[in-house]
TrEMBL record:
Lineage, top ranks: Bacteria, Pseudomonadati, Bacteroidota, Sphingobacteriia, Sphingobacteriales
Organism domain of life: Bacteria
Protein name: Transcriptional regulator, Crp/Fnr family
Domain named Cyclic nucleotide-binding: residues: 43-128
SUPFAM superfamilies: cAMP-binding domain-like
Species per Swiss-Prot/TrEMBL record: Pseudopedobacter saltans (strain ATCC 51119 / DSM 12145 / JCM 21818 / CCUG 39354 / LMG 10337 / NBRC 100064 / NCIMB 13643)
Pfam families: cNMP_binding
Residue ranges of the TM segments: none
Length: 201
């Protein structure tokens, strides 16, 4: 996979289009908000944030695929979040609570982001009510998604979880290695292979 590094101006245009879907920032506020972002590139399988580290940045994904995962004491991995453009990414709970992360943030493919220091985001949230509203809505949407995922993991069969994921993200099978999708769904890799063969997509 070849990553084309964008210039910062084009990256910020993509960010503004994404933000405007939630809250429209006027030009003065947008200037403040756009000034805190910088480009960041990760190679395939880079650990961007390590467990035990503070998450100091909010990332906006421009290219590539990433995941947030947890590793148990026995070494078993659980993929908790999959991210791809256009979306925000990072260990959001650790960032907003200003605590050390319990999880890893990893690039599954070469990835391009813009990133902003959370301390700068926080200052702008205090300065501009519209930015505070944007972050509040974003966190609320993320929480809603997490709760939906908990319900799916607890009450749905493997096939139901698989079908729900495909309905939500139709192209995910082409984007993300299947072992990570299986982990994300809480399905054994061999059972996931059977689903691929048996479920009509």
């Amino acid at each position: 996979m070849v990553i084309v590094k964008p210039n910062l101006s084009s990256a910020l245009e993509k960010l503004r289009l994404f933000v405007n879907k939630t809250v429209v920032l006027d030009d003065t506020i947008w200037k403040d908000f756009s000034n805190i972002w910088e480009l960041h590139i990760s190679k395939r399988k880079d650990i961007i944030t390590d467990a035990g580290e503070k998450e100091n940045y909010l990332y906006f994904v421009l290219d590539g695929i990433q995941r947030v995962f947890h590793t148990s004491e026995s070494g078993r991995e659980a993929t908790l979040v999959l991210s791809y453009p256009p979306s925000f990414a990072g260990i959001l709970d650790a960032m907003m609570l200003e605590q050390k992360s319990k999880y890893y943030f990893e690039s599954l493919t070469p990835s391009v982001f813009i990133k902003a220091k959370y301390i700068d985001v926080k200052k702008l949230m205090e300065k501009h009510p519209s930015i505070n509203l944007f972050v509040l809505k974003g966190v609320s949407q993320a929480l809603s998604g997490v709760l939906e995922r908990v319900v799916e993991l607890q009450v749905c069969s493997s096939e139901e979880k698989f079908r729900i994921l495909l309905k939500r993200s139709p192209h995910i099978l082409q984007l993300i290695p299947h072992k990570y999708i299986a982990s994300y769904l809480g399905i054994d890799a061999s059972n996931f292979s059977k689903l691929l063969n048996n479920v009509k997509i």
